[in-house]
Structure formats: C-alpha cells, structure tokens
Amino acid sequence: MEQIACLKEKLKRYEEVLVEIERLVFCHPQIPVSVRAAIQELIIIKAGINPPPSGN
Predict the structure, then answer these.
(1) For every one of its 56 residues, what pLDDT tens digit does the chain have, with 9 covering 90 and above?
(2) Of 1, 51, 53, 56, which is the most buried if we count CB atoms within 10 A?
(3) Contact 25, 39 (CB under 8 A)
(4) 8 phi/psi in degrees, rounded to 5
(5) Which residues contact 25 (CB under 8 A, 6 or more apart)?
(6) pLDDT at site 10
C-alpha cells in the first residue's frame, strides 16, 4: 500500500508540473507558436496521450 501511495504522490507532482509548464509556456505570446507547438507535441508523446486528429 505504501508503494501505491508513493506513486499517487509522484503522479500528483507530475500533474502539478505539467500545469505549471502550460501556464509558463502556452500563455506567453512572446514565445513563438512553433516553439509552443513543439513543446506541446513532446509533452503529448511523453505522456502517451493521443492528440486530437488534425484537420490536414
């Protein structure tokens, strides 16, 4: 049970960090859109999230 609690705490910290990254990177218009898109793509790949289908 202790291992599960540790993993839950670790997951909570990762979620907090992702929220902070979003706040810092995606909300600053001075950062080029291409850089924000590249960071978002890397986060999606690392998290194993399936991105929504693109309109291409």
Answers:
(1) 898 988 888 888 888 888 888 888 878 888 888 888 888 888 778 777 665 555 54
(2) 51
(3) yes
(4) -65, -40
(5) 31, 35, 36, 39
(6) 86
Cα gap 22→30, rounded to integer Å: 14
SS3 for the chain is CHHHHHHHHHHHHHHHHHHHHHHHHHCCCCCCHHHHHHHHHHHHHHHCCCCCCCCC
Smallest CA-to-CA distance from 9 within 31, 56, 41, 17 is with 17
Q: What is the pLDDT of residue 42?
A: 84
